[in-house]
Protein backbone atom coordinates (compact mmCIF):
# COMPACT_ATOMS: atom_id res chain seq x y z
CA UNK A 1 0.00 0.00 0.00
CA UNK A 2 1.34 3.47 -0.89
CA UNK A 3 1.94 6.16 1.71
CA UNK A 4 -0.95 8.18 0.19
CA UNK A 5 -3.28 5.19 0.54
CA UNK A 6 -2.29 4.73 4.18
CA UNK A 7 -2.99 8.40 4.90
CA UNK A 8 -6.38 8.26 3.15
CA UNK A 9 -7.32 5.08 5.02
CA UNK A 10 -6.32 6.60 8.34
CA UNK A 11 -8.28 9.76 7.56
CA UNK A 12 -11.35 7.72 6.68
CA UNK A 13 -11.07 5.73 9.90
CA UNK A 14 -10.73 8.94 11.91
CA UNK A 15 -13.79 10.40 10.19
CA UNK A 16 -15.80 7.29 11.01
CA UNK A 17 -14.68 7.39 14.63
CA UNK A 18 -15.47 11.10 14.93
CA UNK A 19 -18.86 10.58 13.32
CA UNK A 20 -19.69 7.78 15.71
CA UNK A 21 -18.78 9.96 18.67
CA UNK A 22 -20.95 12.80 17.36
CA UNK A 23 -23.90 10.47 16.92
CA UNK A 24 -24.17 9.42 20.56
CA UNK A 25 -27.54 7.88 21.26
CA UNK A 26 -27.37 7.13 24.98
CA UNK A 27 -27.12 9.20 28.13
CA UNK A 28 -26.26 8.71 31.80
CA UNK A 29 -28.21 10.93 34.17
CA UNK A 30 -27.27 11.09 37.85
CA UNK A 31 -29.66 11.91 40.68
CA UNK A 32 -29.20 12.08 44.43
CA UNK A 33 -32.26 10.07 45.49
CA UNK A 34 -33.22 6.59 44.33
CA UNK A 35 -36.93 5.76 44.05
CA UNK A 36 -38.23 3.42 46.80
CA UNK A 37 -40.22 1.63 44.07
CA UNK A 38 -41.47 2.43 40.57
CA UNK A 39 -45.20 3.09 40.96
CA UNK A 40 -45.86 6.86 40.76
CA UNK A 41 -49.51 6.28 41.70
CA UNK A 42 -48.86 4.90 45.19
CA UNK A 43 -46.11 6.89 46.88
CA UNK A 44 -45.14 10.44 47.82
CA UNK A 45 -41.51 9.99 46.74
CA UNK A 46 -40.66 12.54 44.05
CA UNK A 47 -37.74 10.41 42.88
CA UNK A 48 -40.22 8.06 41.18
CA UNK A 49 -41.51 10.84 38.93
CA UNK A 50 -37.97 12.14 38.44
CA UNK A 51 -37.16 8.94 36.56
CA UNK A 52 -40.50 7.85 35.08
CA UNK A 53 -42.67 10.95 34.44
CA UNK A 54 -43.23 11.37 30.70
CA UNK A 55 -40.35 9.01 29.96
CA UNK A 56 -42.24 5.81 30.88
CA UNK A 57 -45.67 6.88 32.16
CA UNK A 58 -48.10 9.40 30.68
CA UNK A 59 -51.40 10.93 31.74
CA UNK A 60 -54.36 12.40 29.93
CA UNK A 61 -52.61 15.77 30.16
CA UNK A 62 -48.97 16.60 30.85
CA UNK A 63 -46.68 19.40 31.96
CA UNK A 64 -44.21 20.99 29.59
CA UNK A 65 -40.87 22.48 30.63
CA UNK A 66 -42.39 25.97 30.90
CA UNK A 67 -45.17 24.73 33.19
CA UNK A 68 -47.87 24.74 30.52
CA UNK A 69 -50.47 21.96 30.67
CA UNK A 70 -50.99 20.37 27.24
CA UNK A 71 -52.76 17.28 25.87
CA UNK A 72 -51.12 13.96 26.67
CA UNK A 73 -52.87 10.66 26.01
CA UNK A 74 -56.03 12.70 25.46
CA UNK A 75 -55.82 14.45 22.12
CA UNK A 76 -58.77 16.71 22.99
CA UNK A 77 -61.62 17.20 25.43
CA UNK A 78 -64.97 18.91 25.76
CA UNK A 79 -66.32 20.42 28.99
CA UNK A 80 -70.05 20.61 29.63
CA UNK A 81 -71.60 24.03 30.15
CA UNK A 82 -72.04 23.39 33.87
CA UNK A 83 -68.36 22.40 34.21
CA UNK A 84 -69.22 18.99 35.63
CA UNK A 85 -68.58 16.62 32.72
CA UNK A 86 -65.30 16.23 30.82
CA UNK A 87 -65.38 14.13 27.65
CA UNK A 88 -61.89 13.03 26.64
CA UNK A 89 -61.00 11.82 23.15
CA UNK A 90 -57.95 9.56 23.33
CA UNK A 91 -55.17 9.25 20.78
CA UNK A 92 -55.63 6.15 18.66
CA UNK A 93 -52.99 3.47 18.28
CA UNK A 94 -51.47 3.93 21.74
CA UNK A 95 -49.88 0.76 23.08
CA UNK A 96 -48.52 -0.12 26.48
CA UNK A 97 -44.95 -1.36 26.54
CA UNK A 98 -46.17 -4.95 26.98
CA UNK A 99 -47.99 -4.78 23.63
CA UNK A 100 -51.51 -4.33 24.97
CA UNK A 101 -53.67 -1.48 23.72
CA UNK A 102 -54.32 1.62 25.85
CA UNK A 103 -57.97 2.57 25.67
CA UNK A 104 -60.83 4.06 27.68
CA UNK A 105 -61.06 1.02 29.94
CA UNK A 106 -57.52 1.73 31.16
CA UNK A 107 -58.39 5.36 31.86
CA UNK A 108 -61.42 4.24 33.87
CA UNK A 109 -59.32 1.67 35.74
CA UNK A 110 -56.62 4.23 36.57
CA UNK A 111 -58.94 6.97 37.82
CA UNK A 112 -61.19 4.57 39.72
CA UNK A 113 -58.13 3.00 41.34
CA UNK A 114 -56.76 6.41 42.34
CA UNK A 115 -60.02 7.50 43.99
CA UNK A 116 -60.99 4.18 45.55
CA UNK A 117 -61.60 3.93 49.27
CA UNK A 118 -58.53 1.74 49.69
CA UNK A 119 -56.37 3.82 47.34
CA UNK A 120 -52.75 4.32 48.38
CA UNK A 121 -52.31 7.23 45.97
CA UNK A 122 -50.34 9.96 47.76
CA UNK A 123 -52.53 12.60 46.09
CA UNK A 124 -55.85 10.82 46.45
CA UNK A 125 -57.48 14.18 47.23
CA UNK A 126 -56.92 15.24 43.59
CA UNK A 127 -59.52 12.68 42.54
CA UNK A 128 -61.99 13.09 45.39
CA UNK A 129 -64.32 15.26 43.32
CA UNK A 130 -64.85 12.57 40.66
CA UNK A 131 -68.27 10.92 40.95
CA UNK A 132 -68.16 8.76 37.84
CA UNK A 133 -65.84 7.58 35.06
CA UNK A 134 -67.69 6.09 32.08
CA UNK A 135 -66.47 4.41 28.91
CA UNK A 136 -68.28 5.71 25.83
CA UNK A 137 -66.22 3.78 23.29
CA UNK A 138 -62.57 2.58 23.17
CA UNK A 139 -61.31 6.09 22.40
CA UNK A 140 -63.81 8.17 24.40
CA UNK A 141 -64.25 8.44 28.16
CA UNK A 142 -66.31 10.81 30.29
CA UNK A 143 -65.42 11.98 33.78
CA UNK A 144 -68.15 13.51 35.93
CA UNK A 145 -67.38 15.80 38.88
CA UNK A 146 -69.48 16.59 41.93
CA UNK A 147 -68.77 20.29 41.40
CA UNK A 148 -66.75 22.38 38.95
CA UNK A 149 -63.00 22.24 39.48
CA UNK A 150 -60.87 24.91 37.84
CA UNK A 151 -57.76 22.79 38.51
CA UNK A 152 -58.99 19.51 37.04
CA UNK A 153 -56.92 19.43 33.84
CA UNK A 154 -53.92 20.64 35.86
CA UNK A 155 -54.45 17.84 38.38
CA UNK A 156 -54.55 15.23 35.63
CA UNK A 157 -51.03 16.25 34.59
CA UNK A 158 -49.55 15.13 37.94
CA UNK A 159 -47.49 11.97 38.03
CA UNK A 160 -50.06 10.54 40.45
CA UNK A 161 -52.62 10.62 37.60
CA UNK A 162 -50.73 8.64 34.94
CA UNK A 163 -52.59 5.91 33.11
CA UNK A 164 -51.79 2.32 34.06
CA UNK A 165 -53.24 -1.01 32.99
CA UNK A 166 -54.85 -3.76 35.07
CA UNK A 167 -52.80 -6.38 33.20
CA UNK A 168 -49.50 -5.05 34.58
CA UNK A 169 -50.54 -3.48 37.87
CA UNK A 170 -49.44 -6.35 40.10
CA UNK A 171 -45.77 -5.89 39.23
CA UNK A 172 -45.76 -2.12 38.71
CA UNK A 173 -43.45 -1.40 41.64
CA UNK A 174 -40.59 -3.38 40.11
CA UNK A 175 -41.57 -3.65 36.45
CA UNK A 176 -43.40 -0.47 35.39
CA UNK A 177 -45.34 -0.71 32.13
CA UNK A 178 -46.42 2.60 30.62
CA UNK A 179 -47.06 4.19 27.24
CA UNK A 180 -44.13 6.63 27.10
CA UNK A 181 -41.29 7.20 24.65
CA UNK A 182 -39.02 5.01 26.81
CA UNK A 183 -39.71 1.64 28.36
CA UNK A 184 -38.30 0.23 31.55
CA UNK A 185 -35.38 -2.12 30.99
CA UNK A 186 -33.56 -2.88 34.24
CA UNK A 187 -33.16 -1.82 37.86
CA UNK A 188 -30.04 -2.59 39.86
CA UNK A 189 -31.18 -1.42 43.26
CA UNK A 190 -28.70 0.88 44.96
CA UNK A 191 -27.06 1.70 41.64
CA UNK A 192 -29.07 2.44 38.50
CA UNK A 193 -32.27 2.23 36.46
CA UNK A 194 -32.03 1.63 32.72
CA UNK A 195 -34.54 2.70 30.09
CA UNK A 196 -34.70 1.77 26.41
CA UNK A 197 -36.31 3.62 23.52
CA UNK A 198 -39.88 2.57 22.79
CA UNK A 199 -39.78 1.75 19.09
CA UNK A 200 -43.57 1.58 18.91
CA UNK A 201 -44.25 4.95 20.55
CA UNK A 202 -47.49 6.57 19.42
CA UNK A 203 -46.14 10.14 19.41
CA UNK A 204 -42.89 11.89 18.51
CA UNK A 205 -40.20 9.27 19.18
CA UNK A 206 -37.30 9.87 21.52
CA UNK A 207 -33.97 10.79 19.93
CA UNK A 208 -31.95 8.72 22.37
CA UNK A 209 -31.90 4.94 22.16
CA UNK A 210 -31.24 4.41 25.86
CA UNK A 211 -30.93 6.23 29.15
CA UNK A 212 -29.41 5.24 32.48
CA UNK A 213 -30.27 6.89 35.79
CA UNK A 214 -27.45 6.59 38.33
CA UNK A 215 -27.99 7.30 42.03
CA UNK A 216 -25.23 9.17 43.85
CA UNK A 217 -26.31 10.45 47.25
CA UNK A 218 -23.01 11.88 48.54
CA UNK A 219 -22.25 15.46 47.34
CA UNK A 220 -18.49 14.79 47.21
CA UNK A 221 -19.03 11.70 45.08
CA UNK A 222 -21.42 13.68 42.88
CA UNK A 223 -18.74 16.28 42.22
CA UNK A 224 -16.17 13.58 41.43
CA UNK A 225 -18.50 11.75 39.05
CA UNK A 226 -19.26 14.89 37.03
CA UNK A 227 -15.64 16.05 36.90
CA UNK A 228 -14.50 12.62 35.73
CA UNK A 229 -17.26 12.70 33.08
CA UNK A 230 -18.59 9.39 34.38
CA UNK A 231 -22.09 10.86 34.03
CA UNK A 232 -23.48 13.10 31.30
CA UNK A 233 -25.99 15.00 33.42
CA UNK A 234 -26.49 15.48 37.16
CA UNK A 235 -30.06 16.58 37.74
CA UNK A 236 -30.55 18.40 41.04
CA UNK A 237 -26.83 18.71 41.70
CA UNK A 238 -26.40 18.47 45.50
CA UNK A 239 -23.24 20.54 45.97
CA UNK A 240 -24.01 24.13 44.87
CA UNK A 241 -20.63 25.32 46.15
CA UNK A 242 -19.06 23.52 43.16
CA UNK A 243 -21.14 25.22 40.48
CA UNK A 244 -18.70 28.11 39.82
CA UNK A 245 -16.02 25.54 39.01
CA UNK A 246 -18.28 23.88 36.44
CA UNK A 247 -19.30 27.24 34.98
CA UNK A 248 -15.64 28.01 34.33
CA UNK A 249 -15.02 24.66 32.63
CA UNK A 250 -15.92 24.57 28.90
CA UNK A 251 -16.69 20.85 29.15
CA UNK A 252 -19.87 21.62 31.08
CA UNK A 253 -23.01 23.71 31.17
CA UNK A 254 -24.76 24.72 34.38
CA UNK A 255 -28.54 25.07 34.32
CA UNK A 256 -30.04 27.24 37.05
CA UNK A 257 -33.82 27.34 37.05
CA UNK A 258 -36.80 27.35 39.36
CA UNK A 259 -38.82 24.52 40.83
CA UNK A 260 -42.20 24.08 42.44
CA UNK A 261 -40.32 23.11 45.59
CA UNK A 262 -41.33 25.00 48.71
CA UNK A 263 -38.61 24.06 51.19
CA UNK A 264 -40.12 24.16 54.66
CA UNK A 265 -39.44 23.35 58.28
CA UNK A 266 -42.46 21.06 58.53
CA UNK A 267 -44.10 21.14 61.92
CA UNK A 268 -46.32 18.55 63.60
CA UNK A 269 -49.27 20.82 64.37
CA UNK A 270 -50.96 18.23 66.63
CA UNK A 271 -47.91 17.46 68.78
CA UNK A 272 -47.45 19.65 71.86
CA UNK A 273 -46.10 22.27 72.09
CA UNK A 274 -46.55 22.90 68.36
CA UNK A 275 -50.33 22.84 68.77
CA UNK A 276 -49.88 26.37 70.22
CA UNK A 277 -49.63 29.01 67.47
CA UNK A 278 -47.33 31.11 69.70
CA UNK A 279 -44.78 28.29 69.72
CA UNK A 280 -44.96 27.94 65.94
CA UNK A 281 -44.57 31.70 65.61
CA UNK A 282 -41.56 31.63 67.93
CA UNK A 283 -39.94 28.98 65.75
CA UNK A 284 -40.59 31.09 62.66
CA UNK A 285 -38.96 34.19 64.18
CA UNK A 286 -35.97 32.14 65.36
CA UNK A 287 -35.07 31.24 61.77
CA UNK A 288 -32.79 33.34 59.59
CA UNK A 289 -33.83 32.30 56.08
CA UNK A 290 -31.00 34.04 54.29
CA UNK A 291 -28.41 32.38 56.51
CA UNK A 292 -29.90 29.01 55.56
CA UNK A 293 -29.94 29.86 51.84
CA UNK A 294 -26.34 31.08 52.00
CA UNK A 295 -25.05 28.30 54.24
CA UNK A 296 -26.87 25.31 52.83
CA UNK A 297 -27.48 26.38 49.22
CA UNK A 298 -24.61 28.88 48.68
CA UNK A 299 -27.07 31.61 47.75
CA UNK A 300 -29.32 29.61 45.46
CA UNK A 301 -32.94 29.93 46.59
CA UNK A 302 -35.68 32.54 47.03
CA UNK A 303 -37.03 33.32 50.53
CA UNK A 304 -40.73 32.49 50.99
CA UNK A 305 -43.24 33.35 53.70
CA UNK A 306 -45.97 30.87 52.81
CA UNK A 307 -46.43 27.69 50.80
CA UNK A 308 -46.42 29.22 47.34
CA UNK A 309 -43.95 29.59 44.48
CA UNK A 310 -42.61 33.13 43.89
CA UNK A 311 -42.83 32.71 40.11
CA UNK A 312 -46.59 32.10 40.27
CA UNK A 313 -48.69 35.15 39.22
CA UNK A 314 -50.76 34.80 42.42
CA UNK A 315 -47.73 34.95 44.73
CA UNK A 316 -47.73 37.50 47.55
CA UNK A 317 -44.58 38.21 49.56
CA UNK A 318 -45.36 37.41 53.20
CA UNK A 319 -41.81 36.94 54.48
CA UNK A 320 -42.28 39.96 56.73
CA UNK A 321 -44.73 38.00 58.90
CA UNK A 322 -41.91 35.74 60.06
CA UNK A 323 -38.85 37.97 59.89
CA UNK A 324 -35.77 36.86 61.81
CA UNK A 325 -36.22 38.22 65.33
CA UNK A 326 -34.73 36.06 68.13
CA UNK A 327 -35.87 38.49 70.83
CA UNK A 328 -39.46 38.20 69.66
CA UNK A 329 -39.10 34.42 69.52
CA UNK A 330 -37.98 34.35 73.16
CA UNK A 331 -40.84 36.63 74.19
CA UNK A 332 -43.38 34.36 72.46
CA UNK A 333 -41.93 31.31 74.20
CA UNK A 334 -42.25 33.08 77.55
CA UNK A 335 -45.83 34.12 76.75
CA UNK A 336 -46.63 30.47 75.98
CA UNK A 337 -45.18 29.39 79.34
CA UNK A 338 -41.93 28.05 77.93
CA UNK A 339 -39.42 30.72 78.83
CA UNK A 340 -36.80 28.01 79.38
CA UNK A 341 -37.42 26.51 75.97
CA UNK A 342 -38.18 22.88 75.18
CA UNK A 343 -36.80 19.81 73.42
CA UNK A 344 -38.02 18.33 70.14
CA UNK A 345 -36.82 16.20 67.24
CA UNK A 346 -35.61 17.33 63.81
CA UNK A 347 -35.78 14.55 61.23
CA UNK A 348 -33.52 15.16 58.22
CA UNK A 349 -33.86 13.16 54.97
CA UNK A 350 -30.81 12.82 52.66
CA UNK A 351 -31.02 15.89 50.36
CA UNK A 352 -28.34 18.50 50.97
CA UNK A 353 -30.87 21.26 51.61
CA UNK A 354 -32.20 19.18 54.52
CA UNK A 355 -28.97 17.85 56.04
CA UNK A 356 -27.03 21.11 55.66
CA UNK A 357 -30.02 23.33 56.39
CA UNK A 358 -30.91 21.24 59.42
CA UNK A 359 -27.56 21.88 61.10
CA UNK A 360 -28.04 25.62 60.65
CA UNK A 361 -31.64 25.60 61.86
CA UNK A 362 -30.80 23.51 64.92
CA UNK A 363 -28.17 26.09 65.90
CA UNK A 364 -30.62 28.96 65.34
CA UNK A 365 -33.31 27.29 67.44
CA UNK A 366 -30.80 26.64 70.21
CA UNK A 367 -30.15 30.38 70.40
CA UNK A 368 -33.72 30.91 71.66
CA UNK A 369 -33.80 27.86 73.93
CA UNK A 370 -35.27 25.22 71.61
CA UNK A 371 -33.14 22.09 71.60
CA UNK A 372 -33.76 20.12 68.41
CA UNK A 373 -32.31 16.60 68.36
CA UNK A 374 -31.12 15.92 64.81
CA UNK A 375 -32.14 12.51 63.49
CA UNK A 376 -30.73 11.71 60.04
CA UNK A 377 -33.02 9.32 58.16
CA UNK A 378 -32.97 7.68 54.75
CA UNK A 379 -35.78 8.53 52.37
CA UNK A 380 -37.74 5.29 52.88
CA UNK A 381 -37.49 5.77 56.64
CA UNK A 382 -38.70 9.36 56.35
CA UNK A 383 -41.73 8.21 54.36
CA UNK A 384 -42.53 5.55 56.95
CA UNK A 385 -41.94 7.42 60.22
CA UNK A 386 -42.62 11.06 59.33
CA UNK A 387 -44.95 11.12 56.33
CA UNK A 388 -47.08 8.10 57.15
CA UNK A 389 -46.40 7.63 60.86
CA UNK A 390 -46.47 11.35 61.81
CA UNK A 391 -43.87 10.51 64.46
CA UNK A 392 -41.85 13.72 64.50
CA UNK A 393 -41.65 17.22 65.92
CA UNK A 394 -39.89 19.03 63.09
CA UNK A 395 -38.51 17.97 59.72
CA UNK A 396 -37.15 19.66 56.61
CA UNK A 397 -38.44 18.76 53.17
CA UNK A 398 -39.01 20.43 49.84
CA UNK A 399 -42.56 19.99 48.53
CA UNK A 400 -41.91 19.84 44.81
CA UNK A 401 -45.44 19.02 43.66
CA UNK A 402 -46.91 21.75 41.45
CA UNK A 403 -49.20 24.36 43.06
CA UNK A 404 -49.96 22.13 46.03
CA UNK A 405 -51.28 24.60 48.61
CA UNK A 406 -54.39 22.39 48.80
CA UNK A 407 -52.54 19.89 51.00
CA UNK A 408 -53.23 22.23 53.93
CA UNK A 409 -56.93 21.46 53.57
CA UNK A 410 -56.23 17.82 54.49
CA UNK A 411 -56.15 17.42 58.31
CA UNK A 412 -54.76 13.90 57.93
CA UNK A 413 -51.72 15.16 56.00
CA UNK A 414 -48.48 14.61 57.88
CA UNK A 415 -48.20 18.08 59.45
CA UNK A 416 -51.82 17.70 60.62
CA UNK A 417 -53.10 21.23 60.13
CA UNK A 418 -56.87 21.43 60.72
CA UNK A 419 -58.44 24.77 59.86
CA UNK A 420 -62.09 24.66 58.76
CA UNK A 421 -61.93 28.17 57.31
CA UNK A 422 -58.97 27.24 55.14
CA UNK A 423 -60.71 24.05 54.03
CA UNK A 424 -63.76 26.05 52.94
CA UNK A 425 -61.52 28.48 51.09
CA UNK A 426 -59.92 25.60 49.15
CA UNK A 427 -63.34 24.20 48.32
CA UNK A 428 -64.28 27.60 46.91
CA UNK A 429 -61.03 27.81 44.95
CA UNK A 430 -61.61 24.41 43.36
CA UNK A 431 -65.09 25.48 42.25
CA UNK A 432 -63.87 28.79 40.79
CA UNK A 433 -62.82 29.14 37.16
CA UNK A 434 -62.57 32.94 36.87
CA UNK A 435 -58.81 33.75 36.77
CA UNK A 436 -59.08 36.96 38.77
CA UNK A 437 -61.18 35.38 41.51
CA UNK A 438 -58.81 32.41 41.67
CA UNK A 439 -55.84 34.72 42.23
CA UNK A 440 -57.69 36.50 45.04
CA UNK A 441 -58.54 33.20 46.74
CA UNK A 442 -54.98 31.90 46.39
CA UNK A 443 -53.64 35.07 47.98
CA UNK A 444 -56.10 34.72 50.85
CA UNK A 445 -54.94 31.13 51.31
CA UNK A 446 -51.28 32.16 51.45
CA UNK A 447 -52.07 34.79 54.05
CA UNK A 448 -53.93 32.35 56.31
CA UNK A 449 -51.00 29.92 56.31
CA UNK A 450 -48.50 32.67 56.95
CA UNK A 451 -50.45 34.18 59.84
CA UNK A 452 -51.14 30.74 61.32
CA UNK A 453 -47.42 29.86 61.18
CA UNK A 454 -48.35 26.34 60.12
CA UNK A 455 -44.77 25.56 59.10
CA UNK A 456 -41.47 27.37 58.96
CA UNK A 457 -41.36 28.66 55.38
CA UNK A 458 -37.74 28.77 54.24
CA UNK A 459 -37.07 29.12 50.51
CA UNK A 460 -38.11 28.09 47.03
CA UNK A 461 -35.73 25.39 45.89
CA UNK A 462 -33.64 26.23 42.85
CA UNK A 463 -33.25 23.68 40.07
CA UNK A 464 -29.49 23.17 39.76
CA UNK A 465 -28.19 20.82 37.10
CA UNK A 466 -24.80 20.22 35.51
CA UNK A 467 -24.49 18.63 32.08
CA UNK A 468 -21.87 18.07 29.44
CA UNK A 469 -21.73 21.03 27.09
CA UNK A 470 -23.18 19.20 24.08
CA UNK A 471 -26.29 17.82 25.77
CA UNK A 472 -29.38 19.65 24.55
CA UNK A 473 -33.09 19.58 25.26
CA UNK A 474 -32.95 19.39 29.07
CA UNK A 475 -35.53 21.26 31.14
CA UNK A 476 -33.98 24.25 32.90
CA UNK A 477 -36.94 24.69 35.23
CA UNK A 478 -38.82 21.94 37.02
CA UNK A 479 -42.59 22.61 36.82
CA UNK A 480 -43.03 19.09 38.18
CA UNK A 481 -40.75 16.36 39.50
CA UNK A 482 -39.37 15.10 36.23
CA UNK A 483 -36.21 14.55 34.24
CA UNK A 484 -37.96 14.55 30.89
CA UNK A 485 -35.62 12.96 28.33
CA UNK A 486 -38.14 12.68 25.50
CA UNK A 487 -36.62 15.60 23.57
CA UNK A 488 -33.00 15.32 24.79
CA UNK A 489 -30.21 14.73 22.30
CA UNK A 490 -26.54 15.34 21.69
CA UNK A 491 -25.46 18.29 19.58
CA UNK A 492 -24.06 17.24 16.22
CATH superfamily of the largest domain: Periplasmic binding protein-like II
Number of domains: 2
Number of strands: 19
Shape: globular
Q: Structural class per helix/strand content?
A: alpha+beta
CATH class of the largest domain: Alpha Beta
Radius of gyration: 24 Å
Helix content: 25-40%
The percent range for strand residues is 15-25%
Taking pLDDT < 50 over at least 5 consecutive residues as the criterion, the unreliable ranges are 1-22
Let me know the average pLDDT: 92
In whole angstroms, the N-to-C terminal distance is: 34 Å
Oligomer: single chain
- What is the CATH architecture assignment of the largest domain? 3-Layer(aba) Sandwich
The number of helical elements comes to: 13
Protein name: ABC transporter substrate-binding protein
Keywords: Signal
Domain Solute-binding protein family: 69-396
Pfam families: SBP_bac_5
Any overview of this molecule?
With 492 residues, this protein is an alpha+beta fold. It has two domains: 26-251 and 469-491, D-Maltodextrin-Binding Protein, domain 2, CATH 3.40.190.10; 260-463, Dipeptide-binding Protein, domain 3. Helices cover 29% and strands 23% of the residues. It has helices at 3-22, 46-52, 104-115, 152-155, 219-227, 243-247, 277-286, 289-297, 326-335, 352-367, 379-388, 420-430, 435-452; strands spanning 26-31, 61-63, 69-71, 74-79, 85-90, 130-137, 140-145, 182-188, 192-197, 210-215, 233-235, 252-267, 302-303, 342-348, 370-376, 394-399, 456-468, 471-472, 489-490. Strands 1, 8, 9, 10, 11, 12, 13, 14, 15, 16 and 17 form an eleven-stranded mixed β-sheet that branches. A four-stranded antiparallel β-sheet has the order 4-5-7-6, with helices on one face. A hairpin with a 2-residue loop joins strand 6 and strand 7 (140-145). It is globular and about 65 Å long.
Amino acid sequence: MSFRSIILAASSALALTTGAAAAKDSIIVAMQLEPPHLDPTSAAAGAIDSVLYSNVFEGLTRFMGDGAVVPGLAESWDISSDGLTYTFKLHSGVMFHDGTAMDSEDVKFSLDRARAEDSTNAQKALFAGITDVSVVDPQTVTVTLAEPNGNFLFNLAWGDAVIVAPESIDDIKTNPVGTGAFKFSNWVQGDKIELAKNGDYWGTPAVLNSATFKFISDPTAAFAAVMAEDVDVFSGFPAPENLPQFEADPRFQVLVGSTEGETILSTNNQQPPFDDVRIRQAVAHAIDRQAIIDGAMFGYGTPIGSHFAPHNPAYVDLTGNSAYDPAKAKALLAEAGMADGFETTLHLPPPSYARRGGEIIAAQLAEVGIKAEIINVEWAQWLETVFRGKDFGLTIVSHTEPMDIGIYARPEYYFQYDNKGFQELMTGLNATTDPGKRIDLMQQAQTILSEDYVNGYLFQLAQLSVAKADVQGLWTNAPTQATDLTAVSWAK
